[in-house]
Design a protein that fits this description.
It is a single chain. The protein is mainly beta. It contains 10 helices and 32 strands. Strands 14, 15, 16, 17, 18, 19, 20 and 21 form an 8-stranded mixed β-sheet that branches. Helix 6 packs antiparallel against helix 8. The longest helix has 12 residues, at 93-104. The radius of gyration is 25 Å and the shape is globular. Residues 1-21 and 560-589 have low confidence and may be disordered.
């Protein structure tokens, strides 16, 4: 990012840096040997961090399934560098990459090996440990199948980790009516909330209505081992009827019972931030299984073994008509030490919204909510916002989130902070008046972190920078201004902050393109290829003075066009794709 003389002069003149800011060192998480792109998830008060790795190096490949149950060798026969070796499971770097990319695109096929695009790791700045979710170790690979996209979301001292995960992918050998054997592969469970304890084992945190396993997600855990998230509480009769069909040999059809069940619960889950378009009852966002259910905010109380002691659910904001078969939800994204959770819920209404570079469209109305004393409470005046969403709460009962408001007839998200005790409300601007802002976390020092549009362009997707906002001083700062001038990282989004003011963030860096083996890609000229990569980094406060990047080591003025070492080319196509499923929160205890 640029730090011009004018920018530094304004910051120093207004006191907006010196009043609260600490300088930060930037340390990449030790995942460079696991995958090229890594994405931050959370940091707890012991400094333990969760991060997701995209497209890990050297995933296991079942060559037998590849040859017998997919069209790979037929489709790519002419594209392989060495087909004879590939059939034997011996791959060149390029062929291995082609195989893995094929398997990643094979997720919707009823047969063939399945590979997860993302897996979660628990790290500090030295060691790493896999968070497998509901994956299992098999004899075939002598390791986890890597078929499960387990998303770790929060931790307590690294000893209790919560998140969500589908079931492991099973291979179901089925002889059909023609006497042919079909090797069906499918996840044996829909998305489940899970907890991983210090023993390393993972347990399902069950949905209230666990028909076919139900659907659940664990988003946050506090020191008292209360887990906040959401789960199915009921299903339409059509789901029970579909289950009965699968259980009946006469009506199921020529396929195994487990694969029939998967046809009911299989599908994606994605509810975007309010900065993006969303309509409930659409299979573009939610699977038919979820659309046939009601999902409620849920708080599970765990014991020290990770077992559920009690479960509390929180109702919708309204009571649907008896014959209304639409899907409605209330979600909890965070919880503080007092057991107060926050999130969002549907109102049952639609609202017309004009987003950048689009005409007005009807969307589902969603509002920020608080969950306490068994009640679901709407947080903000509905008439002041098009949409609202609460993402985090601290122990001082400050809630952080975003509202969607129009400026010049265009709707963009805006930061809000709200105190449950005093009803004080703040709606600070981002880096400029019409900047879209997204809050991700708040700590007990009343510091909010997230991302804000950095360039005031008319583009639908704008360059973003990581920010921190101090509620007590009302200072909104670019975290890039608090890192060394020679930093090679551009901080795009701050994901979480703990009570030591340590931050986990996503940063862009220039990196050498890699094959799936981890080896460098070499072009026809014998040179490596430089690409933009996203990496999770830890920001550690130093307490030192902030660098004035307009002055060099000799005290001379630096050209106003000074650039940090970090790349500035756009990476937002990959960001939009890769971060779609990384939807998070967080408070720090």
């Amino acid at each position: 990012m640029k730090r011009t003389q004018l920018a530094v002069a304004v910051l120093l003149a207004t006191g907006s840096v010196s009043a609260m800011a600490e300088t930060y060192t930037v340390t990449p998480l030790p995942l460079q040997d696991v995958g090229q792109n890594t994405f931050a998830r959370s940091i707890d008060n012991t400094g333990k961090m969760l991060s997701m790795v995209q497209l890990e190096f050297n995933p296991p490949v079942d060559v037998e399934q590849l040859e017998e149950d997919t069209s790979f060798f037929t489709t790519f026969s002419g594209s392989l560098e060495n087909e004879d070796d590939a059939v034997q499971g011996v791959f060149t770097d390029a062929d291995y990459t082609l195989v893995v990319n094929f398997l990643l695109s094979n997720q919707d096929s009823s047969t063939g090996q399945k590979l997860a695009s993302f897996r979660t790791y628990l790290t500090d700045t030295t060691d790493i440990d896999l968070v497998p979710g509901l994956d299992e170790v098999t004899d075939k690979f002598d390791d986890y199948t890597q078929s499960v996209e387990a998303g770790g979301r929060d931790s307590v001292s690294g000893n209790f980790i919560v998140g969500d995960s589908p079931g492991v992918v099973v291979l179901d050998e089925y002889e059909n009516e023609d006497g042919n054997t079909i090797n069906y592969t499918y996840s044996e469970l829909p998305q489940q909330a899970f907890v991983q304890t210090s023993s390393g084992s993972s347990k399902v945190i069950p949905a209230v209505d666990d028909t076919l396993g139900g659907f659940s997600s664990a988003r946050a855990v506090n020191q008292n081992l209360q887990v906040a998230g959401f789960s199915t509480v009921s299903f339409l009769d059509t789901v029970d009827e579909a289950v009965e069909t699968c259980e009946d040999d006469e009506t199921r059809g020529d396929l195994p019972e487990g694969r029939c069940y998967f046809s009911i619960y299989g599908g994606e889950f994605n509810v975007p931030r309010i900065s993006s378009y969303f309509v409930t009852n659409s299979t573009s966002f939610l699977s038919g299984f979820i659309l046939s259910s009601e999902v409620n905010a849920t708080i599970w109380q765990l014991d020290v073994n990770g077992d559920v002691i009690s479960t509390d659910t929180f109702p919708l904001l309204f009571t649907p008509e008896e014959d209304d078969t639409s899907h409605y939800f209330s979600y909890a994204y965070d919880i503080n030490e007092q057991g107060i959770a926050v999130g969002e819920a549907l109102t049952g209404d639609a609202v017309t919204i004009t987003r950048p570079n689009s005409s007005g469209l009807n969307e589902s109305e969603r509002v920020a909510t608080v969950y306490r004393d068994g009640e679901t409470q709407e947080l903000l005046p509905r008439e002041e916002n098009l949409l609202s969403q609460a993402m985090a709460i601290n122990d001082n009962n400050w809630v952080a989130g975003a509202v969607l408001r129009e400026s010049s007839d265009i709707a963009r998200s805006r930061l809000f902070a709200y105190n449950l005790d005093t009803t004080e409300q703040l709606y600070p601007d981002g880096f400029f008046a019409t900047a879209g802002v997204q809050a991700n976390a708040i700590n007990n020092n009343n510091i909010i972190v997230g991302k804000s549009d950095f360039d005031a362009t008319s583009d639908t997707v704008r360059e973003t920078h990581a920010f921190m906002f101090n509620i007590d001083t009302e200072e909104f700062l670019d975290l890039n201004d608090l890192t060394p001038c020679d930093s090679e990282y551009t901080l795009l989004e701050a994901i979480d902050i703990n009570d030591n003011d340590e931050i986990i963030a996503n940063a862009r860096i220039r990196s050498t393109s890699k094959y799936v083996t981890g080896a460098d890609v070499i072009n026809s000229a014998g040179e490596t290829i430089e690409v933009d990569a996203i990496v999770a980094v830890k920001l550690s406060p130093t307490g030192g003075a902030i660098d004035d990047c307009s002055i060099d080591e000799d005290g001379d003025e630096v050209d106003d066009n000074f650039e940090r070492s970090g790349a500035s080319t756009s990476f937002f196509g990959l960001m939009a794709l890769s971060l779609l499923a990384i939807f998070r929160r967080k408070l720090k205890k």
